[in-house]
Amino acid sequence: MGTALCQVQICTMVKTTTDKPPESPEDIVATDGEVRSWKVMKGTKAAMANLYGDDWGDEEVRLFIQGKKFEKWQKDEGGTALEDDDVASRYQGYMEAFENPTPNDKQTMLAMCVNEVQQESVARILRNTTITIKNADDVKKLHKVMTDLTTEHRQLQGALGIQRKDRKTHKETALELIKVEIERGRQFMEDKLITITHEGCNIQEGWVLYNFQELPYKCQFTCARCGGDIIIEGGDPEETKKVIERVKKPEG
Q1: What is the pLDDT of residue 9?
Q2: Is 193 exposed, middle or buried (0-12, 13-18, 19+ CB in 10 A)?
Q3: Considering the entire predicted model, what is its pTM?
Q4: Among 150, 160, 203, 244, which residue's Cβ finds the most Cβ atoms within 10 Å?
């Protein structure tokens, strides 16, 4: 049973501040002890002098450590994971459907593919009736591993923006854009247009667009049904001076 559990452990990764695969060097933890150890190394001193001259300290060393760890993580985790045919095929399939992936997207996607393969390994152990699990604690450990993997998988999906609730087909996206334009048109009509209505005939004749509705205005139309007059008026005389001042061209 111990061997089976070892086969499904989450891949070794550097310690991060997010407890998830690092998306950038800044996500990686570099302890004060590591900074003190690296700071006295000849290689570190040479790199610091090349990068900063004489003006460097603990924080610059910390950034250097994070960068080196991130490079190693990308090389070790990515290279090892893609040697697995199942992981590689999943990764290739996802990347073919993923638009404009960044380097961080690729690393996160790879971690998600490894996670999926590990989940399947746990599931096979739990349903394989030829494996005798004598210790109840071992069963609990397997279920705990599966729970952790499932939680991590959701987090990775969230980081990539591919959770089911966030996915939209092109048709759904187009429909939403159409709805937005319809709402913009409705708002424009409500805010900017004056409705021409003959209340006596209960008929709407159309609309008038008048950009200075604050000014007093009066419009007259003929009803298409009865031939009667339709008079539309409005505006506030007190606003006239303010509007004139606002639209008046500057002198000189």
Answers
A1: 39
A2: middle
A3: 0.40
A4: 160
